[in-house]
Amino acid sequence: MIFSGTVKSKLPNTGTTIFSVMTALAQEHKSINLAQGFPDFACSKELISLVNKYMVKGLNQYAPMPGVMKLRERIAEKTEKLYGAKFDPDKEITITPGGTHAIYAAISAVVGEGDEVVVLEPCYDSYVPAISLNGAKAVFYELKYPDYKVDWEEVKKLINFKTRMIMINTPHNPTGAILTDQDMLKLQKILDNTDVIVLSDEVYEHIIFDKQIHQSVARFPKLSERSIIISSFGKTYHTTGWKMGYVLAPENITKEIRKVHQFMAFSANTPIQYALADYLENEAAYLSLGQFYEEKRNYFQKLVRGSNFKILPCHGSYFQLLNYAKITQERDIEFAARLTKEHKIASIPTSVFYHKNNDNNVLRFCFAKENETLEKAAEQLMKV
Ligand SMILES: Cc1ncc(COP(=O)(O)O)c(C=O)c1O
Questions:
Q1: Would you give the DSSP letter of residue 316?
Q2: Among 258, 276, 237, which Cα is nearest to 101's?
Q3: Mutate which of 178, 235, 264, 318 for ligand 1 pocket (most atoms within 8 A of beta carbon)
Q4: Interval 233-248: pLDDT, tens
Q5: 185-232, pLDDT tens digit by residue?
Q6: What does residue 246 show for φ and ψ, rounded to 5 degrees?
Q7: Domain 18-43+287-382 - what CATH class?
Q8: CATH for 62-285 (3.40.710.10, 2.30.30.240, 3.40.640.10, 2.170.150.40)
Q9: C-beta 317 within 6 A of ligand 1
């Protein structure tokens, strides 16, 4: 069925996301899916029992719009313990149906027509459409292959009176790069005497390796007072399908974010919020995550060492970049498709994370997988 009238697209250049495309291709060709960023192992049985407990108990109706208070209190405790920052559960913490929702609500709340938003790319694919849909313009800073480091003096040149927001992401999807304390201090400095709000996407906050410490903006009071921090329980508890996340922000910004959130979803899943509040008491569950994924990273790297792919550094997140320049000069989109069809391995071409589709012959592989899946994947990659 087709609507006979005019449908004016608000996102004319946006198609189906590459994640859906590659996942469909992986299914069609019975390939191993290291494309989309989700674990292929189970989440905690205890967490499932807790959700079940609260469902059976009858907590199945709308949660309060900003989230279940018990959960907001647990998040405040955790944030203070980890990053030394106090957030008021009543006025500065909001539970959302996932990180993507939180990002959209945050951008809609503070960004509008004529504003500019500085985006460091490659970046998670929801950022730019969220900016465009709100009538604003994304201004790009390119994180350059192969180390994807930030030159903050160059970023500073992009900031002017129209700049409303800068978006950062650490640990970083798709590159696995992390921001250091020096990065944060430089960011703080370039924003001094400006009105710019920082949106800090920290959904991989617990997935950081090699004894590095996650430099949340919450650790830097002068940055924190102008920041919106995004987190996701999906990444932390292997439950990406539950779509649960939260936003930390100063009171006056939170007030605006909640106005948008209440008309996007109103509230997030009730029994899961109660379950997460209980489960957050188990600190080991999130504090051990870095080591768990570090072992996966090490294992995957060991398996593909000696192949024709070049392993790029990965300091955090659950993504490993591999450069294939030694194998072919095909465009990354074409090579990723061929790898899926002929070698039965699905990955994500990194050009899709740049607005100009910069192609460095690099593919992103998700290693949040059972060791057996990684072994099968590596066996294929070694043959290429
Ligand atoms: C950098 C980044 N931010 C946000 C999200 C969204 O998280 P959620 O699944 O909770 O919406 C993702 C998910 O892949 C991500 O990689």
A1: B
A2: 258
A3: 235
A4: 999 999 999 999 999 9
A5: 999 999 999 999 999 999 999 999 999 999 999 999 999 999 999 999
A6: -155, 165
A7: alpha beta
A8: 3.40.640.10
A9: no
